[in-house]
Design a protein that fits this description.
Layout: H1 3-36, E1 55-59, E2 64-68, E3 73-76, E4 83-86, E5 99-106, H2 118-132, E6 134-146, E7 149-160, E8 163-174, E9 177-186, H3 190-202, E10 205-206
Antiparallel strand pairs: 1-2, 2-10, 3-4, 4-5, 5-9, 6-7, 7-8, 8-9
Helix pairs in contact: 1-2
């Protein structure tokens, strides 16, 4: 499989889990509506939790840690991701749960694994996203610092399964591992969860790998 196809698969995994969650929970919701005919609850306002009380998720296999609010649902090894965190449902009719996920790409198979730069990876990533997403629009793109490590941050929008979505994606390279941390939200809900999502992303920490 060539490099372009691998990147497209990686990014479809990173941005696709939330859509799968949307379809899954949407079907559950329809069944619940049929059975209970629920009355919509009042408008939900996301609350910013105290990060000091958040849960810490440690991934021993992929060597990273990340914090998340206690009321967000954690799913490990979900749809090819290392981990994904779903926001709480706003009410019984909430069909889409915003999310933050961590996806891993092992670069050790690449011939240039020791020379690939963050700039190279960023350019390849944006090209792959353009090729794999409908109505892709790059809104922001710049170098970033994540837990004192050089990183690259992009903000973009796209249409997936008829939904207008907006994303924050940050990637950083540690040795021969690329870490992608992605926030996914419906475009009209993006700012509601942006602060919490950024705090989750900022808590991401690559862990030291044992010396061979």
């Amino acid at each position: 499989m060539n490099r372009k196809k691998v990147l497209i698969i990686i990014f479809l995994i990173a941005i696709g889990g939330a859509i799968f969650g949307f379809l899954y929970y949407s079907n559950l919701l329809k069944e619940k509506v049929k059975q209970n005919n629920p009355v919509p609850t009042p408008t939900f306002t996301p609350q910013v939790n105290n990060p000091d009380t958040w849960q810490t998720y440690n991934d021993v296999e992929y060597k990273f840690s990340i914090k998340y609010p206690l009321d967000w649902k954690k799913e490990e090894r979900y749809m090819g991701m290392a981990v994904i965190f779903f926001s709480p449902k706003e009410n019984d009719l909430d069909e889409f749960q915003e999310s933050v996920n961590v996806t891993i790409e092992d670069l050790s198979w690449r011939k240039n694994k020791d020379s690939i730069t963050l700039d190279d990876y960023a350019k390849e990533s944006i090209t792959s996203l353009k090729a794999s997403l409908s109505d892709f629009k790059l809104l922001e793109g710049d170098f970033y610092v994540l837990d004192k490590n050089p990183a690259y941050k992009i903000v973009f929008s796209a249409v997936r399964n008829g939904e207008n979505l907006k994303y924050i994606m940050i990637f950083t390279i540690r040795e021969t591992i690329a870490y992608l941390v992605t926030y996914t939200a419906k475009e009209n809900k993006f700012t509601d969860y942006e602060k919490i999502a950024n705090e989750i992303i900022e808590s991401f920490t690559p862990l030291e790998r044992p010396t061979p």
